[in-house]
């Protein structure tokens, strides 16, 4: 499925393609990953005078960034009151400052490189329809204001543009929304000249430990003094981040309305126990409504069927807005850190030349952009006041321990339980109906099977090539998803998302 950002842009213009990495190359810095974090880092490094290569395993902007809600905001649901309690007001201000600088970095790049990406300044609003949440919303508004944001507390307000009553909200001014894919396309064009280069469809398979690092792909290699792993979650296990963050999925649908004046102009997100978690924003010159939500842990869709997530969003949208027709639907993946703060900086203790950024907890547009600033400063050996808060090597036993335990209990449950569950599966691959997939038996072996709409059968190993967990079938996306660390594969077994770097084994049918 294509997000509205990708489908709308591809209807308007030709998208540039870049070469596959072949042969041997040498650069000052290699950036791996063509989403907003990698592109933001590469452009900052290029501007600082570095000879940079950006290596993308698929197409620029077609990973997580191109499937986001594309909100650029420092208001991340309910975060600032929690940051105050865990880290203190000074660190909460640094969190806000970093995200605001990420927003400014985007604005500066749009102007400097003349990127047409539907950028619009809009307020960000976190609201609740639950009376019991009013006091928490008030505390969040106060904490956000203390952190330096233009935040205000709104009580018993219907906001005029929402079709339902809101008990309370925190509103932050001077935030923004855009087409995230168009922005990535524009940044890649700006990077790819004057000694810097972009490669696409060049999956990185390995990175050597010491500098100068050797980065290997199936058809070539790069030698670089520094490497930035900006693949959403590091594809090298020695950083240990796969065991520190939990993968989750969420869903979006875009609709036209019978009355486009009913489309909210602000960027909204709900919060509170007992209410449906919903994200709202407009796009396409305020003529299309985007509704997001239905989040769940990877491989644990409600009822075991990811199509239920889209049904839930559509039902909510039709209950609240005069929906005309569906324009697009898509899903995204995010990684949740145990202490609610992303990991940005040196990839592990002892290294001075390998950097990463992960754990953006659904807010990677602003934070990923800011990560480019922080990592560039670290590579240039410049002091940056954000470094200690976002330290990618931190092990905060007080704030992280409960989350780390929960994450790894979740992994252990799937690592052991899914093997037992799948071993007991008795359905034969021949029993699959068209357009469906699942764990089944084929020639005495437990496999992942799929029958396409034409009746063709596909069989792959159900063992993830990362650390051996069993994958689960994602019916809505027609993919195999690993519930342990979030690797994803097509129904044919082709890798879609790391931390795995190899495809699933394919079996003849």
Global structural class: alpha+beta
Q: Write the CATH architecture name of the largest domain.
A: 3-Layer(bba) Sandwich
Number of domains as seen in the coordinates? 3
What is the overall number of helices? 10
CATH superfamily of the largest domain: FAD/NAD(P)-binding domain
- Total strands: the figure is 25
In one word, what is the shape? Answer: globular
Which spans of ≥5 residues are poorly predicted at pLDDT below 50? none
Terminal residue distance: 26 Å
Write structural notes for this entry.
This protein is of the alpha+beta class and 509 residues long. It has three domains: 4-67 and 181-243 and 340-395, FAD/NAD(P)-binding domain; 119-177 and 247-336, D-Amino Acid Oxidase, Chain A, domain 2 (2-Layer Sandwich), CATH 3.30.9.10; 421-507, Rieske [2Fe-2S] iron-sulphur domain (Rieske Iron-sulfur Protein, 3-layer Sandwich), CATH 2.102.10. The protein has ten helices and 25 strands. The strands form four sheets. Strands 3, 4, 5, 6, 11, 12, 13, 14 and 15 form a nine-stranded mixed β-sheet that branches. It starts with a helix and ends with a strand. The mean pLDDT is 92.
Condensed summary:
By secondary structure, the chain is α+β, with helices and mostly antiparallel strands. It has ten helices and 25 strands.
């Amino acid at each position: 499925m294509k997000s509205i950002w990708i489908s709308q842009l591809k209807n308007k213009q030709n998208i540039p393609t870049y070469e596959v990495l072949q042969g041997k190359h040498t650069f000052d810095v290699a950036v791996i990953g063509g989403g907003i974090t990698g592109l933001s880092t590469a452009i900052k490094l290029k501007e600082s005078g570095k000879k940079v290569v950006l290596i993308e395993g698929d197409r620029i902007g077609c990973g997580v960034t191109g499937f986001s809600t594309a909100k650029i905001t420092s208001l991340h649901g309910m975060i600032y009151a929690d940051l105050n309690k865990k880290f203190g007001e000074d660190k909460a201000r640094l969190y806000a400052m970093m995200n605001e600088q990420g927003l400014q970095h985007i604005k500066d790049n749009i102007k400097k490189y003349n990127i047409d990406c539907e950028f619009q300044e809009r307020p960000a609003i976190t609201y609740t329809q639950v009376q019991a949440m009013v006091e928490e919303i008030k505390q969040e508004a106060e904490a956000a204001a203390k952190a330096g944001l233009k935040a205000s507390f709104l009580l018993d307000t219907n906001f005029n543009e929402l079709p339902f009553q809101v008990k309370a909200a925190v509103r932050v001014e001077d935030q923004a929304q855009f087409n995230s894919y168009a922005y990535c396309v524009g940044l890649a064009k700006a990077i790819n000249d004057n000694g810097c280069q972009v490669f696409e469809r060049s999956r990185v398979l390995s990175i050597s430990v010491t500098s100068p690092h050797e980065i290997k792909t199936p058809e070539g290699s790069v030698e670089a003094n520094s490497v930035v792993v900006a693949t959403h979650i590091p594809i090298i296990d020695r950083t240990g981040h796969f065991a520190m963050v939990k993968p989750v999925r969420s869903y979006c649908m875009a609709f036209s309305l019978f009355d486009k004046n009913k489309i909210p102009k602000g960027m909204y997100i709900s919060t509170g126990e007992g209410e449906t978690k919903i994200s709202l924003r407009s796009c396409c010159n305020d003529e299309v409504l985007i509704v997001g939500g239905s989040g769940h842990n990877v491989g644990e869709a409600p009822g075991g069927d990811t199509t239920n997530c889209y049904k839930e969003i559509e039902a909510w949208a039709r209950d609240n807005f005069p929906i005309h027709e569906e324009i697009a639907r898509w899903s995204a993946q995010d990684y949740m850190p145990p202490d609610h703060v992303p990991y940005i900086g040196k990839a592990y203790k002892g290294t001075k030349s390998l950097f990463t950024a992960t754990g953006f907890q659904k807010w990677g547009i602003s934070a990923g952009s800011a990560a480019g600033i922080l990592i560039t400063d670290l590579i240039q050996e410049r002091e940056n006041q954000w470094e200690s808060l976002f330290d990618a090597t931190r092990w905060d036993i007080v704030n992280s321990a409960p989350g780390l335990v929960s994450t790894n209990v979740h992994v252990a449950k799937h690592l052991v339980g899914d093997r037992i569950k799948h071993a007991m599966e008795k359905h034969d691959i021949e029993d699959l109906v068209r357009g469906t997939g699942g764990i089944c038996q084929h020639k005495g072996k437990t496999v992942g099977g799929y029958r396409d709409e034409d009746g063709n059968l596909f069989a792959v190993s159900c063992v993830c090539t990362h650390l051996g967990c069993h994958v689960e079938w994602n019916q809505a996306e027609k993919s195999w998803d690993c519930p342990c660390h979030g690797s994803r594969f097509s129904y044919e077994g082709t890798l879609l998302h790391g931390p795995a770097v190899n495809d699933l084994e394919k079996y003849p049918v």
